[in-house]
Design goal:
By secondary structure, the protein is α/β, with parallel strands linked by helices. It contains 10 helices and 5 strands; from the N terminus they run E-H-E-H-E-H-E-H-E-H-H-H-H-H-H. The longest helix has 15 residues. The relative contact order is 0.11. The N terminus is likely disordered.
């Protein structure tokens, strides 16, 4: 966990500085929380500016005006659990990407977290390199998961598959949704279909409305569960 990742800068090349990615961590294990926060803050381009032992304190901080880019959230917490907190976090700051970081990988918890609006689901056994990758992946619109969790998700959706339902998606929207389930982010979908990023963004808003979901992860989950293509 103490191993750090730093991005090398080519000699003699000036790179425009960007503000670091603001990451918050909610974890009730004091030792694990401090270790993760310390390690992430040493990674170039990331700043773990705040960490909390419970969801209530994190929500209060957000209501006070703090908005992280990515929030790493444990599932089992004292008081309000992580899955319950996801919806409240997203209601306060829809742009914040929530990645569950937990020891639990059972189907029910994974499914509930995704439906609540989580962008990803990692196990605490993940190396720090994977956690860092997942932070950037979530920011780019991806859905980071450890292989074991991803396997559980596919198995769960396969068992829960329902008859195909017509949500009134156009052929273009169906293709975009299909590409999203393959893991492509918005820019990659736009490049694949030779469309502008803003056009894809408009299509995605229409897809979310028709599917009655609020996030990319929710749309993908519903598409897989109900076999929409």
């Amino acid at each position: 966990m103490e191993k750090l990742i730093r991005t090398a800068k080519p000699a003699g090349v000036r790179i425009a500085s960007r503000p670091p990615v603001c990451v918050w961590l909610v974890e009730d294990n004091h030792a694990f929380r401090n270790t993760v926060a310390r390690v992430l803050s040493r990674v170039e381009g990331i700043e773990c500016s705040q960490h909390f032992s419970n969801a209530e304190d994190a929500l209060d901080a957000m209501l006070g005006g703090g908005v992280p880019d990515v929030l790493l959230l444990d599932v089992e917490l004292p008081g309000q659990n992580g899955i319950e907190a996801v919806q409240k976090i997203k209601s306060i700051s829809p742009s914040t990407r929530v990645v569950m970081l937990t020891v639990f990988d059972d189907h029910e918890k994974v499914f509930k977290a995704i439906c609540a609006g989580a962008s990803g689901y990692l196990l605490k056994t993940s190396p720090v390199e994977r956690i860092v990758e997942s932070i950037h992946e979530a920011l780019a619109g991806g859905a980071p998961m450890t292989p074991r969790v991803a396997g559980s998700v596919l198995q769960m959706f396969s068992k829960m598959a329902q008859p195909k339902q017509d949500y009134g998606l156009t052929s273009r929207e169906q293709k975009i949704l299909e590409l999203m389930t393959q893991g492509l982010i918005k820019k990659e979908v736009a490049d694949h279909l030779s469309l502008s990023y803003h056009t894809i963004d408009t299509h995605l808003r229409n897809i979310y409305t028709k599917l009655h979901v609020h996030t990319r992860t929710g749309a993908v989950a519903k598409a897989l569960k109900e076999r929409l293509f």
